[in-house]
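During the second year of the project, the team shifted from modelling isolated chains to modelling whole assemblies. The rationale, set out in the original proposal, was that interfaces cannot be judged from single-chain predictions alone. As a representative example for this report, we include one of the complexes processed in the last quarter. Its constituent sequences, exactly as entered into the pipeline, are reproduced here:
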Amino acid sequence: MVVASHWHDDHVRGLSALFRIAHKALFVCSPALTSKDFLALSELYANAESTIQNGPTEIQACLDEIARRMSAGEANPIRYAHPDRTLLELRTTRAKEATKLLALSPSDEMVRRTHQYAAQLLTALEKGIREASLVPSAPNDTAVALRLDIGGRSILLGSDLEEHNNPSVGWSAVLQGMATAHIPAQTFKVAHHGSHTGHHPEVWTTMLSPNPLSLLTPFKLGRHQIPNDSDRIRILGLTEKAYISADPHATAKPTSQIPRKAAALVDSTASNRRLAIPSVGHIRWRAPLSDATAPGVVDLFDGAMLLADVAAKPKPLASVPARSGKKRP
Amino acid sequence: MKAAIDGSHRIVNVSPGTYDESLWISDSDRRVFPDIELQLSGFLASAACQDYSTIGSALAIGPDGSAAAAHPDNRAEKISEELRPAVATPVAPEISKFEVEQQFEGIVLARDDEGDSFTARLRNQRADSPDEEAEFTISELPDDRHLIMPGAMFTWVIGLQWRGTQSKRVSEVRFRRLPPFTKNAIAEARIKAEQRAKMFAFDVEVPSLIPSS
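Output from the structure prediction step:
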């Protein structure tokens, strides 16, 4: 099963390549992403004249693959995410309980908002008003948050689900509509890169066990960077076991080979040049399915680190660290 | 030695190795100043070197461009003094050639008006290398300021620009003026979207997957 948590590049980059290889996989996404208006927008922007992705290119490529498979006579592999919908249930003879993947979002209101966003944008295009591209600053109303129940454990995957103090959307909607009985999750992929916009205090008190293993990925857009200092302090006040896949301060020098004569002008025109994706770290957590109380082992690779270490030693212009495989109890 | 000719055809300082459009004399100027044309043409026709210091030497103008430093053979200063009221503004020759040395495609990620800057994602068009991000100063792009918004696409070219026999290295950021999507393009996208929406209208019920072992 391949899940498009939403269509922003930082979450789905490479998804279409993965989906093409996983040729028997189901494809999960928000139902809003296959609405007529969103499909039309996707078609227009995905084919826009740019080599840099500027819209839902990955989603469009996945839908192209799905259309190809269906045209070849295969069954529709799409599975839409709705609150409290079981996306996958896997029973084995050894495990006492089924492994279950449950969608928590998007709520009906989030889907309606995405329909509205797409319809308004398409109407504007028809009036000759062209947005330069569909940019990631658009609302995260297509975010698919998930809960995985496996071996007596529960893992909460927060996607970019946000919280706006509105019971119809975001985490408030999840908390309001949570009909399915659940055990508190011991592990949390922290929502929206640890930003305060993805934080709801009740998620930590009702959906998570105390001091949960918490995993984050950093995000940068221009000078905007999350998690920021206050995000880190907030998360570290909620758990001692927080890890981040890369130092949010870290940057890496670009590797472009610029002709020597042009280099001075490049440097005088543009400042603070750095690699767009400096490091994709890796946090690996392994725990036995046979013992739900065993904490398991966390391994850190390629620059992943304890969140507590970020504030202690920010690393400007650090090169990408070598694969370390450092173990953490 | 530094030399060039300004709008009134005085000799002014120009750093060696740089290019100054005011060095050039238009056709109308040549009619007014045949001597200058003669001298420059003669020099340019015979000189093996296009270094400004050599031009300066040919005109025998001092480093400060003063008349006192001028060689008696230099006619530029004297003629321009005599005929100043009739002087037309020199016009640079057309760009005859542009040699691209480096080119990026860019897309604006964020604009920071307070900091007079924007951040962009860059893709090297001359080499296969990972995408970069960088910051640009908005006030250095006066013509395109209104186009700088998240998602806006631009081309950034660094290269040698030739006007006649003179060249200078330039860096130019050009924002793309994207035309609106045509009605046909939108209609086609809508038709395709409708077909796909029908195809994807009903999702699948997933049965429990029960492995054999």
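Chain A has ten helices and 17 strands. The first strand of chain A starts at residue 2 and ends at 3.
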